[in-house]
Amino acid sequence: xxxxxxxxxxxxxxxxxxxxxxxxxxxxxxxxxxxxxxxxxxxxxxxxxxxxxxxxxxxxxxxxxxxxxxxxxxxxxxxxxxxxxxxxxxxxxxxxxxxxxxxxxxxxxxxxxxxxxxxxxxxxxxxxxxxxxxxxxxxxxxxxxxxxxxxxxxxxxxxxxxxxxxxxxxxxxxxxxxxxxxxxxxxxxxxxxxxxxxxxxxxxxxxxxxxxxxxxxxxxxxxxxx
Length: 226
Ligand SMILES: Cc1cc2nc3c(=O)[nH]c(=O)nc-3n(C[C@H](O)[C@H](O)[C@H](O)COP(=O)(O)O)c2cc1C
Hints:
- The protein is an alpha/beta fold and 226 residues long.
- It has 5 helices and 7 strands, in the order E-H-E-H-E-H-E-H-E-E-E-H.
- Helix 1 crosses helix 5 (197-220).
- Bound molecules: flavin mononucleotide.
- Keywords: Oxidoreductase.
């Protein structure tokens, strides 16, 4: 077990997937292990396992006339976990070039008015976030570069920097499917054959390695002023 002390910084690792045996959950566990090895205390938030309901409620809807609104106890408990974290690492499958509803709803309900935004001094100021998105598209798919840009604009600019984060990085993990997916010149989604044996092992090893590189880069950027 890595050494932990009261001064250890906390990493909130948010997993947004409906299956515990998914590649997403596997990637989140590996990212958490790497962060723990770097000295972080890990708070693992598996949104589905914890029963988080992503649907907005009246209790958690912002009141634009009251930035000190008391939201639901559930949301306040999540806000506490975000506040206690020095870094947030969100791991999710890319759905429609965005985050899945589970993660989107967590942001909608928890990163709320008066807490995450709407104050001259944002409460999340100075925190750092890594978004690790798993995508079915292959690295050489024509849609991939556009998807990367959309995710960066949406997640880093639209959400993290808007909420005062000091640093936000998007790690796009393509080739997350066993069977390669590419959109051809006519716009048809071509699903290739699954690879097997050593080739498949190599594919997963390359995938794990890329995920690790994103985490390493994020950790290395820590010492660089924003
Ligand atoms: C509703 C839905 C939307 C998806 N949209 C995209 C997409 O926009 N781009 C992409 O590359 N893959 C997309 N995919 C593929 C997923 O990203 C891929 O299945 C997932 O990352 C695999 O990881 P998992 O095994 O952990 O679910 C989509 C899958 C689903 C089910």
